[in-house]
Each structure stands twice: as C-alpha cells, then as structure tokens.
Amino acid sequence: MSEISTNPLNKLTFSGHETFHCRQLWLKKGYDFVKKGSRFSDSEAVVLLGVGKNMVSAIHFWMKAFALIDKEGNTSELADYIFSANGRDPYLEDEATLWLLHYHLVAQGSASIYDLVFNQLRKEKIEFTKENFLLFAERKANEIGFTQFNKKTVAADFEVLVKMYIRTTDQVKDKEDTFSGLLTDLNLIQEEKKHSSLYSIPNENRNNLPEEIILYTILDKDDFQKSVSLNVLSQDRNKAGSVFAITKNALMEKLESAVNSLKYKKYGITLSDHAGIKELQFAVKPNKFEILDLYYGK
Q1: Is the pLDDT of residue 6 over 60?
Q2: For residues 30 and 62, is the Cβ–Cβ distance under 8 A?
Q3: Which terminal Cβ of the chain has fewer Cβ within 10 Å, N or C?
Q4: Adjacent-strand bridge partners of 204
Q5: What mean pLDDT do residues 225-245 have?
Q6: Rounded distance, CA 4 to CA 15, Å?
C-alpha cells in the first residue's frame, strides 16, 4: 500500500487507455489482479483478466488514473479502502464512491484531460465543443512549454472523456448496460439536446454529493492544516467547487450541515466569518479515511 504522487504541472499526459473508457467492473478486476501479485506486463495477464491485450493496458491505465496504484504497481490506501475483501464498496454500488473516484481522477493529474476540463476550461467556458477543448488544451500546452501535443491523440482522449460521463440514448434505454461510462450517474457533463456536439458543466446544487466526500477532499491535501476559506474551496484547483461543479451556496450549505452534525463533534468543526471571509476550521484534524468511515460505516 502506498501514497500516490500527482503529475507535475509542467507535464501533460494524454492517451494510454487504448480508447477504452473505464467499465463498471474493471477497477475491482484490476485490484484483485494486483493483489494476487500479478503485473499488467505479465504474459498471462490477458488470460488472468479475461480481456484482450488492449483492454489489459486500459485497465492498467485506469488503475493509475484513479490513484489506485502507484508507479511501482502497488495498491494505494484508497484502493484498499474501497476494493479489499472488507472494502467499503468493491462493486461501486454507492454513488458516493463514484464522486470519490471522480475527485481522484481530476486531482491525481495522471490523465491530464480531466484536470484541464474540470479545473481550467470550465472557468473560461461553461459550454464547449470538442474543438473548443482542443484549442484550449493546445494553448495550455504552449503556455507550459509542452512540445509533444498531438491533436489527434488529444481528440481521442476527449471522446473517451465524453463516454465516461455521458450516457448515450441507447444506454439510457438500458441503464444496466455494462459498456456505459463509469461516471455517467454523476450527471456532471451535460450534452446540449439541440446541439449534440455542445457540452456543458454548469455549477449545480449536487444534492447527491455527500458532505463526507467534500470533507475528505479538504483533508486529502498536504497543504491543509486546520482551516481553509470558502473562497478557496469554491474556486481553487482540485477543490470541491472546481472538481464537483457545485455552487458556492450549496457548498456552504453542506459545510454548515457538517458543522451542525453531532457525528463530527469530536473534531470541533466550525465556520468562522472575519470581515466577510468565511473559513472552515477543525479544532482536531481527522484522518480523511475516518471521515469516510462516518459515511460508509466501519
């Protein structure tokens, strides 16, 4: 078990998924495979995983992208928490786990497109087309001196992102479709009905996003000591407002709910307001997985 390091800001990574979006059972399958001591580079991986060679590469890619394995191929604490024999949600039946995985997909940064779309593009454009994104991504690549930008590769990445978050008309008819994207139930990316190639990620109330997941994302950061401002949480890179596209008011309501809840009493969570600057504070900083335990139960 190990911690995962995030991708440096001066490097962009595209492709690696062999154009396969992540399927419902792939992460559990990949987790069990790694826990048995197998490696994705092993010649028998195709047989052990029961998928084609390209899908083996895709499962390996998504395990890294969701922060479930490190560079050495060892499982992370997050992976063990979700997928182990006594894991909290090994078959991803709880929507909270999907929010958790979405957060790590964006914040991990090993698949750059998710950071670019959720943290950056939507600050400039709530509505965007594939071409909008490609121009934006190329501009960002130029800004950081990334010289290996390949428009065709990045366009394929965009198609995979769309499949991850948007359920097609056929899949709507068959919600149990195993080929639908892992994160479609979150309803984060909308496809404009009048113009099918136009997408949007509007800020919404996110009523189905548990407050524990928001608290987890706050505690996940090394730079977090015991307080953080609401402005930072609603606007900054990899913070709840950016990653979850939640309105500032809804975020505030979820934090107020946490402050008033007895289950967090021992952490002394408060909301302060100094000269109009609201801050969330912890008297005692909990472990992020302790907070998840309050949602899933031990």
Answers
A1: no
A2: yes
A3: C
A4: 246
A5: 96
A6: 20
User: Over the stretch 84-139, which tens digit does the pLDDT of each residue have?
Assistant: 999 999 999 999 999 999 999 999 989 999 999 999 999 999 999 999 999 999 99
277-282: strand order across its sheet = 227-229, 277-282, 269-274
Q: What is the mean pLDDT of the chain?
A: 92
Continuous H helices in 36-150: 45-49, 53-65, 77-83, 95-108, 112-115, 122-124, 130-143
Assess contact for 128 and 113: CB atoms under 8 A.
Answer: no
- Decide: 45 and 83 in contact? Cβ < 8 Å: no
Four-residue CA torsion sign, 105, 109, 114, 119: positive
The Cα 296–Cα 298 span in angstroms is 7
Q: Phi, psi (5° rounding) for residue 23?
A: -95, 160
Q: What DSSP string runs through 123-175?
A: HH-SEEEHHHHHHHHHHHHHHTT-----HHHHHHHHHHHHHHH---HHHHH-T
φ/ψ of 231, rounded to 5, equals -60, -45
CA 166 and chain centroid, separation:
15
Here the tokens at position 258 are 């946490």
Tell me the pLDDT band of 168, cut-offs 50, 70 and 90.
low
Give the whole-number percent of the chain exceeding pLDDT 70.
91
Amino acid at 128: F
On whether the CB atoms of residues 241 and 248 are closer than 8 A, the answer is: yes
Report how far residue 26's alpha carbon sits from residue 84's, in angstroms, rounded to the nearest whole number: 14
What's the chain's length in residues?
A: 298
Name 246's Cβ contacts closer than 8 Å, sequence gap at least 6.
Answer: 203, 204, 205, 206, 209, 234, 240, 254
- Secondary structure (3-state) at 218: helix
pTM, 2 dp: 0.93
For residues 60 and 70, is the Cβ–Cβ distance under 8 A? Answer: no
